[in-house]
Amino acid sequence: MTLSSATIESPVGLLTLVASDVGLVAVLWEDDDPLRVRLGPLAPDDAHPVLMETMRQLRGYFAGEVTTFDLPLDMRGTDFQKSVWAALLAIPYGETRSYGAIAREIGRPGASRAVGAANGRNPLSIVAPCHRVVGTGGHLTGFAGGLEAKAALLALERRAGELPL
Questions:
Q1: Quick one: which of 43, 14, 25, 56 has its CA closest to 122?
Q2: Is this structure's pTM higher than 0.70?
Q3: DSSP letter at 73?
Q4: Alpha carbon distances (Å) from 52 to 8, 49, 127
Q5: Residues 114-151: tens digit of each pLDDT
Q6: Is the pLDDT of residue 164 over 90?
Q7: What are the catalytic residues?
Q8: Which alpha helices (DSSP H) does 48-121 contain, by range?
Q9: Can you spell out the DSSP letters for 3-16?
Q10: Is the domain 79-162 a CATH 1.10.10.10 member?
Q11: pLDDT tens figures, 35-62
């Protein structure tokens, strides 16, 4: 099955969005490792409704106006990975969690390393906010978009939280 794709410029680089007929499948980084998220053939389609809505919401996110994404998702992974990615979706905007906290949230308290591995394979960067997962003590750890992008996303969320209403 061919998936639809579109690209969007962002403050953290060029992002490739991928969707199926079900929902958003991936948000990929410009220099993403093709083995990190394995996808079949992609067909450019800037008019795909899920991709158009994802672009709209991402623009709002980068403008500090969108704090929660409301998109149909087509998560593709193991049951364990999907449980980790679902936990990512529950991390509030502007907050962070440790790998250990995510492991406890999914009922697998001894699985922080496995959570880290699943987090690293998260195909829905930014939308399923893996950038909000940090090491013990708040240290920035690996991120598919690079630590500079992770820091920029966290700073964006911090600044948006400081804006007056």
A1: 25
A2: yes
A3: B
A4: 10, 5, 14
A5: 999 999 899 999 999 999 998 877 778 878 788 888 89
A6: no
A7: 130
A8: 49-62, 79-89, 99-105, 112-120
A9: EEEEEE--TT--EE
A10: yes
A11: 778 898 899 999 999 999 999 999 999 9
Q: Which helix (H) or strand (E) holds 18?
A: strand 15-19
Q: Is 60 within 8 Å of 106 (Cβ atoms)? A: no
Amino acid identity, position 153:
L
The residue whose two tokens read 């829905």 is: 124
Q: Which amino acid is at 26?
A: A
Instruction: Provide the residue count of the chain.
Output: 165
Please check the confidence at residue 163 and state whether its pLDDT lies above 60. Answer: no
106 burial class (0-12, 13-18, 19+ CB within 10 angstroms)? middle
What pairing do the DSSP bridges indicate for beta strands 15-19 and 3-8?
antiparallel
Domain ranges for the chain, please list them: 3-62, 79-162
